[in-house]
């Protein structure tokens, strides 16, 4: 498999002191590395690397992606952003419900 359950010790900080937390939500990690699931899902797919997407636009039921030079990278049924939440939120202006979700993430 490419993921395994992780039963790490979880705690929270209260007044600067760690307090153990009971694990109620199952957590998983990639195996052998954190990017294993992505590599598995990407098998057989043409992927553009080192391309920074600057704008995402909804065209009917597809997504148009443009890079930092303004070049159109294509129309896609779906896209995946792995950028930190603030950067993802900036990209998601064409999908306000997704943008709002990204804006609510605290790091």
Explain the layout of strands and helices:
Elements lengths: L2 E4 L3 E5 L2 E5 L5 E4 L5 H7 L10 E7 L2 E6 L4 E5 L8 H7 L4 H8 L4
Antiparallel strand pairs: 1-4, 2-3, 5-6, 6-7
Helix pairs in contact: 2-3
Structure description:
This protein is α+β, with helices and mostly antiparallel strands. The chain folds into 2 domains: 3-42, no CATH class; 53-103, no CATH class. Helix content is 21%, strand content 34%. The chain contains 3 helices and 7 strands; from the N terminus they run ββββαβββαα. The protein has helices at 36-42, 85-91, 96-103, and strands spanning 3-6, 10-14, 17-21, 27-30, 53-59, 62-67, 72-76. The strands form 3 sheets. It has a 3-stranded antiparallel β-sheet, with no helix packed on it. Helix 2 (85-91) packs antiparallel against helix 3 (96-103). It is extended. The two termini are 29 Å apart.
Number of helix segments?
A: 3
- List the uncertain runs: none
Taking strands numbered 1, 2, ... along the chain, how are they ordered across the largest sheet? 5-6-7
H/E series = EEEEHEEEHH
Quickly count the domains.
2
Query: In percent, how much strand structure appears in the residues?
Result: 25-35%
Estimate the helix proportion, in percent: 10-25%
Question: Over the alpha carbons, how many angstroms does the gyration radius reach?
Answer: 18 Å
Based on secondary structure, the structural category is: alpha+beta
Task: State the total count of DSSP E strands.
Answer: 7
Please give the alpha-carbon distance between the first and last residues. 29 Å
Q: Per the principal axes of the C-alpha atoms, what is the gross shape?
A: extended
Major β-sheet annotation? 3 strands, antiparallel
Mean pLDDT: 91
């Amino acid at each position: 498999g490419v993921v395994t359950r992780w039963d790490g010790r979880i705690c929270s900080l209260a007044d600067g002191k760690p307090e153990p937390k009971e694990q109620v939500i199952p957590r998983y990690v990639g195996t052998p590395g954190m990017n294993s699931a992505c590599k598995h899902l990407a098998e057989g797919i043409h992927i553009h690397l080192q391309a920074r997407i600057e704008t995402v636009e909804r065209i009917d039921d597809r997504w148009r992606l443009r890079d930092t030079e303004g070049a159109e990278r294509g129309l896609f049924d779906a896209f995946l952003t792995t950028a930190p939440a603030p950067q993802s939120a900036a990209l998601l202006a064409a999908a306000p419900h997704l943008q709002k979700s990204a804006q609510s993430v605290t790091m």
